[in-house]
Write a structure and sequence with these properties.
Length: 457
């Protein structure tokens, strides 16, 4: 029996009875019923009632090549028939993760030549924490194990991912975090910049918070700093250009490793293959997932820099770590095809030179002037829209987050999917968006803003 044999109401009732969803208030959900997305094509998703919605989030920041790519289905099908599964433990390997690791190393910054696979961004970050702490232990400095992260960071939902992340709500439900992780201020000039402070100076001040945390702990106790090049789930917080080079300088000065979480930014979203390249920095680890397969299969890759890799190989013996699905052959076959498509269609260059700048220009020209919008930020194919009651004073609406949710609901009703995080609307479109798609997105978003304004004022 397929789902088409059920009515929407029946599916919603089954969903409410049996399916626990991620990041969902289930009591609230039972009242309204889930929106059932049943198919997708190109830049559009369709719900069970046939409604077409332009997907401004690329699923969950992942469907970079858009939906309906049968080449990926063919790659999965062929791999499943030939070798649906074998593991990479105990000195075995299979061809697709081997070739995928080589391909990723070719695309990555030049100090990266090794890759460890998992199935999710959270797993990759868990691996990164274990690896970084293991590295310092192998170097004879086991006490150098503190990791500095940032408020409002999102690094996943496992216990280590939640502990690394800086989301207070998540910490409140953790019942005990992984020890020795501290959080410092985020580079969010719109709310944390001082009157009269330039963006450049704010970036240096935000980076100094990392230096202060190193000095407070003692550099001999600090393993690494971890950060998303652009904080995604925390509200697309784009740091000033001065921030990342200063972070790199500080990490080098105190011999602290630099861990980048590129689960969102990896594979083209910033107009380079990796945001490390956009920011002009070199990291010791880079966590990636999502767009590695454009979300068609669950797969993550932890990119490991030469410094850590050579210690692991030369001094490490066996690293007691791995997942049943590390280097899953089907997921890796899909990833290889996905990267081939991104390359073949020149998507990264297009975001850098054409659609990315057009996206920025149109959002600034058409969305930023709206009465509910305090600021529009963009970088490549990432955008944040700050929602305010008063443009000049930056005063927010009374109930935090409520205005953004109102806008989001109008947007979905008007055929445009985007996300609300606190008082910020965020967008992360597929890299296939053309200038016409961007115009369509602006039309639908403007309509949602107008309707929300009528509700809110
Ligand atoms: N890191 C970042 C920056 C993310 O945005 C996410 C998910 O959105 C994760 C890690 C966790 O990835 P996953 O949900 O695949 O575990």
């Amino acid at each position: 029996m397929t789902y088409q044999n059920y009515s929407l109401k029946q599916l919603q009732a089954i969903d409410a009875a049996h399916h626990l969803h991620p990041f969902t208030d289930h009591k609230e959900l039972r009242g309204i019923g889930s929106r059932m997305i049943t198919r997708a094509d190109g830049p559009f998703i369709y719900d069970s009632e046939g409604k077409e919605i332009l997907d401004g989030m690329a699923g969950l920041w992942c469907v970079n090549i858009g939906y309906g790519r049968s080449e990926l289905a063919d790659a999965a099908h062929a791999q499943m028939k030939e070798l649906p599964y074998y593991n990479n433990f105990f000195k075995c390997s299979t061809p697709t993760p081997t070739l995928l690791a080589k391909k990723i190393a070719e695309l990555a910054p030049k100090n990266i030549n090794q890759v460890f696979f998992g199935s999710s961004g959270s797993e990759a970050n868990d691996t990164a924490v274990r690896l970084v702490r293991h590295y310092w232990a192998l170097e004879g400095k086991p006490q150098k194990n503190r990791i500095i992260s940032r408020q409002m960071a999102y690094h996943g939902s496992t216990i280590a991912g939640t502990s690394l992340g800086g989301m207070e709500g998540m910490h409140g439900q953790l019942g005990g975090a992984v020890p020795n992780i501290v959080h410092v201020m985020m580079p969010y000039a719109y709310e944390l910049g001082l009157p009269g402070e330039s963006d450049h100076d704010f970036g240096l001040r935000a980076a100094k918070a990392v230096e202060d945390a190193i000095l407070e702990a003692g550099a001999e106790n600090v393993a690494a700093f971890i950060g998303e090049p652009i904080q995604g789930a925390g509200g697309v917080k784009i740091p000033p250009a001065s921030y990342w080079p200063e972070i790199q300088r500080i990490c080098r000065k105190y011999d602290v490793l630099l861990m980048l979480d590129e689960v969102i930014t990896g594979y083209g979203r910033t107009g380079e293959w990796f945001a490390a390249q956009s920011m002009g920095i070199e990291a010791d680890t880079i966590t990636t997932a999502k767009a590695l397969t454009s979300g068609y299969q669950p797969l993550s890759a932890l990119l490991v820099g030469d410094r850590i890799a050579s210690t692991l190989v030369e001094k490490g013996g066996e690293f007691y770590h791995g997942y049943t699905y590390s280097g899953h052959p089907v997921a890796c076959a899909v990833a290889l095809k996905n990267l081939e498509i991104i390359e073949r269609e020149g998507m990264v260059e297009r975001v850098k030179n054409d659609t990315g700048p057009y996206f920025a220009e149109k959002l600034q020209a058409r969305i930023a002037p709206h009465g509910l919008v305090g600021e529009v930020r963009t970088f490549g194919f990432l955008a944040a829209i700050e929602i305010v009651k008063d443009k000049k004073t930056r005063e927010r609406f009374m109930e935090p987050g409520s205005a953004a949710v109102t806008i989001r609901d109008h947007a979905i009703a008007n055929g445009m999917m985007l996300r609300a995080t606190g008082d910020t609307m965020i967008m992360s479109p597929p890299l296939i968006w053309t200038r016409d798609t961007i115009d369509m997105a602006c039309d639908r978003l403007l309509m949602a803003l107008d309707l929300a304004e009528a509700d809110l004022r």
